[in-house]
Specification:
Oligomer: single chain
Number of domains: 1
Distance between the termini: 43 Å
Strand order of the largest sheet: 3-2-1-4-7-6-8
Length: 295
């Protein structure tokens, strides 16, 4: 852990979950203290995060209310210290927090690729669901349903990445990470990673050819294609909009717009307020269903 997270986890008492030092009083130190281990879950969910704590909390609560409760990994990509303290308070039996704090990147999307690769390396279940902190699930059985169809025969199930028509047609066969279920044994065998270093040195792309290209998804999808793995597309991501469908409500690029697109962010902020209001109503209904109070 970095210094901020170490200090906050000690202050908040959450360091007791951090293996192996915080769990040194446990019978098997490296296996942690929670009774239900990360590998006892059916699905792990990975969420990159940057400075958007409130929507992350709602995202987590909607995931917890799913018909199949997941293990949740938050990978923070450089939030400010006060938000890191809030994040650390989320650490618990079913949530772990990780921090990436690089001094510089070659591309604005590179922190996300690092977060996705860290999550895949840490995933201890066979199924991993990648999503965003600004993406709120609208189907309570989404994880359960996608888990049934994601296996060795169909190891990649998700949404096609958003269009890049102004520079390439490659995006048409690439899967995005807004909502993406992976069968990790197949992904590890394929050696599929998201690294921008791999995009540049492994596949020969420039660090930036045009706006939005190459983007987060390139290395991963090129590796899938090399391994003969074709994604199963459940839908299509869209650019610059609040995308609402049967599966999710996504205020696209909300965290990034806070830093890189102030004009777009003003509109995106309105979408986020509406999406969070709708999500909170949905969460109440889902919690009631989970508790067996309604059918």
């Amino acid at each position: 852990m970095n210094s901020f997270s170490s200090i906050h986890s000690l202050q908040l008492g959450t360091f007791r979950f951090v293996s192996p030092v915080g769990t040194s009083d446990c019978p098997v130190k490296w296996e942690g203290r929670q009774k239900r281990k990360p590998w006892d879950y059916e699905v792990t969910v990975a969420i990159p995060h940057l400075n958007t704590f409130d929507d992350l909390v709602l995202c987590i609560e909607l995931l917890r209310a799913q018909s199949v409760s997941p293990y949740i990994m938050i990978v923070d990509t450089g939030s400010q210290p006060d938000i890191i303290r809030d994040l650390e308070a989320l650490r618990g039996e079913d949530v772990e927090i990780h921090y990436i704090q690089a001094n510089a990147y070659r591309h604005s999307s590179e922190p996300v690729t690092v977060a996705l690769d860290l999550a895949q390396s840490l995933c201890r279940t066979k199924l991993l669901f990648h999503t965003h902190s600004d993406c709120f699930l609208r189907r309570r059985d989404l994880l359960e349903t996608w888990a049934r169809i994601t296996n060795v025969n169909t190891p990649v199930v998700g949404y096609r990445m958003s269009p890049r028509d102004w520079v390439t047609r490659e995006w048409e066969w690439m899967v995005g990470h807004t909502a993406l279920m992976l069968y990790m044994p197949s992904i590890h065998r394929a050696g599929a990673t998201w690294s921008y270093q791999r995009v540049h040195y492994g596949y020969g792309y420039p660090w930036m050819l045009a706006s939005g290209w190459p983007d987060t998804e390139v290395a991963f999808n090129r590796a899938l294609r090399d391994a003969g793995i074709a994604p199963v597309f459940m839908g299509h991501d869209l650019n610059g909009t609040r995308q609402i469908n049967d599966d999710f409500d996504h205020c696209r690029s909300f965290p990034g717009s806070m830093i890189y697109g102030p004009e777009y962010h003003s509109q995106c902020k309105k979408w986020m307020e509406e999406a969070m209001s709708d999500g909170k109503d949905r969460l109440l209904s889902w919690k009631q269903q989970k508790q067996g109070l309604t059918t």
